[in-house]
């Protein structure tokens, strides 16, 4: 999908001047009443005030110290509404109850002003909390100052540290995946030697993806904020290692995803993107019958707990990931440029028995849970084209995740969570840059709540964390 690049801070210099320069005679009256004799002096004062106002509306430079332009994929702050639909009035959004913190530095006034216009919090624990600088430049790239967001586990933090600070000691291609590179990482504190030749069985590897997949880092934080805990830790990172090909070291941040060593793949080379084979009709039947339908020649799907499908559907709907449940784009009208159109997949929608689920994966260490990989999804999918087929057949969603959506705090919590990843944060223009994107997720969450209500669906307490 071609993602549109929009300009940072496109809101500059708008209306206030209209009010001041209005030719409406009403606007002139107070001047006369005050009986001022020096209209030119007053005009000067007004002009000055205008200039100050205009200044406060000017875009501030990117918050980062690198001054890079935000990446196209996760679109930066702008007035481009397809990315940032404002909440409609007919949906009740409970005000977020998260307590803001007043600690910390003051931000540029203009930035705050623009924030407020978009309905963003004027005080946010995430932006107001300065991260201590110092130490090596590398060490600044994760910020755990103040409180670590409670939805990130100790294990998440350890893995994020490895991904962010680990030295790249070797690389390997992943068969049939030209766009990604698997790298072995060595952290300073590691007791074991760097051992570049070692395979990734010890969990010290990551997968470097394309710069346009950065949204996958947001997806990781979304997973944790919602308490789903099914995706793998991911950070944004710029690379300079001589081990890597030149194109990887051009100072553009890329997502680095922790490599789970025990993801199960089918032996079948035509179907190695799955831990178990599952067709759409079987999947629907399985959901309907409340039991796992035996799948020809393979029982791996049978080990997957029922609640997992509700997690997956919720996650994929918010991110609009079609790859797993609807890679044929049967649930919306795809553009001609979509892979599902180019690969002639869409035509199969006419014959549901041919539709297969893809990327249905589990880990050997826990075959009862799904593991979500390749979560970049579609931040820009317009609201009118949301794929509701992703929700089809699901009659119960995870309670904790639904509670977070109901709280109206999703975007705030995501902001707080993403603040930890300085590379991502700065590359996207900070809070102001990220906010429209997070609003899209919040908005999709409200649409999902509405769907749950309209279809009388239930919410189930998670049996399995
Ligand atoms: C949901 O429940 C209400 C009231 O019980 C009923 O009128 C409505 O038809 C139900 N909707 C669906 C989609 O089942
Ligand atoms: C999250 O998942 C990991 C492995 O997938 C598991 O080890 C961990 O206990 C889970 N954490 C929570 C809080 O459920």
Automatic annotation (TrEMBL):
Pfam families, alphabetically?
FAM198
Instruction: Answer whether the UniProt record assigns the keyword Transmembrane to this protein.
Output: yes
Q: Where is this region: Disordered?
A: 1-26, 68-133
Which stretches are transmembrane?
A: 38-58
Which named protein is this?
Answer: Golgi associated kinase 1A
Q: Which organism is it from?
A: Callipepla squamata (Scaled quail)
Question: Which portions of the chain have biased composition (kind: Low complexity)?
Answer: 69-83
Gene Ontology CC terms: Golgi apparatus
């Amino acid at each position: 999908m071609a993602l549109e690049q929009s300009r940072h801070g496109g809101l500059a210099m708008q209306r206030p001047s209209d009010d001041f320069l209005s030719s409406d005679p009403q606007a002139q009256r107070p001047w006369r009443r005050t009986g001022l004799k020096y209209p030119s002096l007053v005009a000067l004062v007004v002009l000055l005030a205008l200039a100050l106002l205009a200044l406060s509306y000017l875009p501030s430079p990117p918050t980062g110290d690198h001054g890079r332009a935000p990446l196209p994929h996760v679109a930066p702050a702008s007035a481009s509404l397809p990315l940032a639909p404002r909440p409609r009035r007919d949906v009740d959004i409970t005000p977020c109850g998260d307590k803001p913190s007043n600690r910390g530095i003051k931000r540029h006034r203009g930035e705050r002003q623009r924030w407020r216009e978009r309905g963003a919090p004027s005080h946010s624990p995430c932006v107001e909390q300065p991260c201590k600088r110092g130490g090596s430049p590398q060490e600044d790239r994760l910020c755990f100052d103040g409180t670590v967001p409670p939805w990130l586990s100790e294990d998440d933090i350890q893995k994020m540290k490895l991904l962010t600070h680990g030295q790249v000691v070797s690389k390997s291609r992943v068969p049939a995946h030209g766009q990604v590179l698997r790298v072995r990482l060595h952290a300073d504190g590691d007791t074991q030697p760097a051992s570049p030749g070692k395979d990734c069985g010890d969990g010290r590897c990551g997968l470097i993806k394309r710069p346009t997949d950065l949204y996958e880092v947001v997806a990781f934080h979304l997973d944790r904020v919602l308490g789903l805990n099914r995706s793998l830790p991911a950070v944004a990172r710029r690379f300079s290692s001589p081990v890597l090909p030149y194109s990887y070291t051009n100072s553009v941040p890329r997502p680095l995803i922790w490599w789970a060593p025990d993801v199960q793949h089918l032996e079948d080379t035509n179907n190695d993107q799955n831990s178990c084979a599952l067709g759409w009709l079987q999947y629907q039947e399985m959901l309907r019958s409340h039991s796992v339908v035996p799948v020809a020649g393979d029982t791996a799907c049978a080990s997957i707990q029922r609640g997992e499908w509700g997690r997956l559907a919720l996650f994929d709907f918010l991110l609009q990931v079609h790859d797993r449940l609807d890679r044929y784009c049967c649930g919306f009208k795809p553009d001609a440029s979509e892979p599902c159109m180019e690969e002639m997949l869409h035509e199969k929608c006419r014959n549901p028995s041919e539709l297969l689920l893809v990327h249905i994966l589990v880990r050997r260490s826990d075959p009862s849970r799904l593991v979500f990989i390749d979560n970049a999804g579609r931040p820009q999918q317009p609201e009118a084209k949301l794929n509701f087929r992703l929700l089809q057949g699901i009659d119960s969603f995870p309670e904790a995740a639904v509670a977070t959506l109901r709280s109206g705090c999703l975007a705030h919590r995501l902001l707080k969570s993403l603040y930890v990843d300085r590379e991502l944060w700065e590359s996207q223009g900070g809070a102001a840059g990220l906010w429209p994107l997070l609003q899209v997720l919040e908005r999709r969450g409200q649409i999902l709540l509405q769907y749950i209500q309209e279809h009388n669906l239930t919410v189930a307490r998670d049996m399995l964390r």
